[in-house]
Amino acid sequence: MAEIDWFNKPVENSRELILKEAFKLFLQKNVEKVTVPELERVTKLQRGAIFYHFKDKSAIFEEVIERFFFSSLNILYPISPDRIYSLKEYWDKKHQRLNTIQDWFKQESISINPCAAFFHLAEQANLYIPTFKEDMKNLMKTEKEYWIRVAYLDSELKGTNDNACFWGKIWKNVFLAKCYEACYGKENIFIDDFNMM
């Protein structure tokens, strides 16, 4: 999975501006609650300019999901395990990504909890985009494979392949559970309780 630095990527044209601002709105609201006048306001573009690039709001939503949900902006997006040799190191990389996403939310003035935003966005995409379920299953499969790969390399688990697979799956599930728990937790969601190892 190729990673793009979405956090520092400049908006280069009006199509990208529409997608980025729509993404921010869809993170915070149900699809049906995001209105064209709201898109006009946040992009400072007129309706004609928006629909010059997109057939309708559904087309915007589908491209937003394809481009941003399946990217490093997503809390659930897998991190390549290359040059990572322990579960603790991988956990720390995932935690670092979460902090970067939280910082991006603040920078973009998105006032919702990032974990809640992405779980909500996933449910919206599952309702409105027929291919989303399969794409999400593939993302989660890759995520599990990466955790297992790191577990096999972990010096604490070397020589115990069955245990490595087990521990990789366990830590993937713990990480996902901590993200879900963070939806309902404290304001600063990515602090000490992620330092479990």
Describe what you observe in this structure.
This protein is an all-alpha fold and 197 residues long. 62% of the residues lie in helices and 0% in strands. Helix 1 packs across helix 4 (57-69), helix 4 (57-69) packs across helix 6 (114-128) and helix 7 crosses helix 8. The radius of gyration is 18 Å and the shape is elongated. It starts with 13 loop residues before the first helix and ends in a 15-residue tail after the last helix. The mean pLDDT is 87.
Summarize the structure.
This protein has eight helices and no strands. The protein has helices at about 15-30, 35-45, 45-55, 55-70, 85-105, 115-130, 130-155, 160-180.
Please tally the β strands and state the result: 0
Going by helix content, strand content and strand pairing, the class is mainly alpha
Count of runs of 4 or more consecutive helical residues: 8
Order of H and E elements: HHHHHHHH
User: Using only CA atoms, what is the Rg?
Assistant: 18 Å
Shape: elongated
Poorly predicted spans:
none
Mean pLDDT: 87
Strand content: under 5%
Query: Distance between the terminal alpha carbons, to the nearest Å?
Result: 27 Å
The share of residues in helices is 55-70%
Biggest sheet features: none
